[in-house]
Amino acid sequence: MVERSVNRCQEPTSPLTGPTIRKPLPTDTQLTPAPAPAAARDPTPLPGLWGQGDNGAMADTEALRARFARALEGARGPGGGPDPLPYADDLLGRWREPQRHYHTLTHLTAVLDHVDELADHAADADVVRLAAWFHDAVYLPDRSENEERSARLAERALTEAGVPERKTAEVARLVRLTVTHDPAADDRDGQVLCDADLAVLAAPPSSYAAYTAAVREEYHFVPNEAFREGRADVLRQLLALPSLFRTPYGREHWEATARYNLRGELEMLSPPPVPPA
C-alpha cells in the first residue's frame, strides 16, 4: 500500500490508506531465513475465516506457507535453491507485526486470492504472486518508504533464494509500482497486482467499513482532522480517475461497487454544509 505525508500539497497521497509522516530511509531490509449496485462477486475474505484487525491471527498459515513455496518454485524452477519455507516463515512473521491492523495476513491472503482470480491476465502469475508477498512486507505506518524498503527486501531475498535476476527485478518493479497503482497499458503483471491490491475498495458495506476502521487504527497517531482531510482528498482523486481497475475482470466486476463505496465514505467524511446566515 501507499502512504504519504500529512502535508498533502507536498506529497502524493495514497490510493488505499492515508497520510503519514516522512522519516529517513532505514537500511534494515535483509530477510534472513528463520530456522450498493447489483452485487458483484465479493472481493473480500469471509469474516468468519479472515477477521480484520487481528494481525491475521486466524489465517491458515500452513496454506500460506504452501502457497509461497509454489510461487517461489514456479519462479525459479523446482529445486532451484534453498528450502522455501524459512523464507515464507520470515515473511509471515513480518505480516503479523503488532503495528498492523489492515496490512495483515488477512490482506495478504486477499491479495493472493485476487491474483489467482486474475491470473489469466498476467504474463507471469508466479512473479505477481511473489510481488504480492513482498509488497507490504516492510510496513511502518509512520514512514513513507515502505514500498522501497519492501522492494529492496525482495531483491536481496529472492536473489538468495535462487530466483533468476530478471524475475527478481520484475518482482521489485511490481512492488515499487504499488506506490502509484498506475500500471502502463501494456503492463499485464502490473495491472493484475494493482487490481488485486485495490479490490478491497469493492467490498460489501460491512467489509468496507471494517477496512476503513482498520486503516484508521493503523494511523492512530494522525490527528482526526488531518486524517479526515487527507483521506477525503484521496477519495476525490480516486473518483476522478477514468477507471479504478485496469484488468477487464476488475472493470466489469469491481468498478461500480468500488465507486459506490468511495462516494459513500467521502460523504461521511465531508463536513455538513454551513447553513445560510
| Proportion of residues in β-strands | under 5%
Strand order within the widest beta sheet: 1-2
Briefly note the structural class of the backbone. mainly alpha
Distance between termini?
43 Å
Tell me the overall shape. Answer: globular
What is the number of helical segments per DSSP (H or I, 4+ residues)? 11
Q: Low-confidence spans: pLDDT under 50, at least 5 residues?
A: 1-14, 18-53
How can the largest sheet be summarized?
2 strands, parallel
Q: Secondary-structure element order, as H and E?
A: EEHHHHHHHHHHH
Radius of gyration (Å): 18 Å
Q: Report the mean per-residue pLDDT as an integer.
A: 84
The count of strands amounts to 2
The percentage helix is: 40-55%
In short:
The chain is mainly alpha-helical and 277 residues long. The chain is 51% helix and 1% strand.
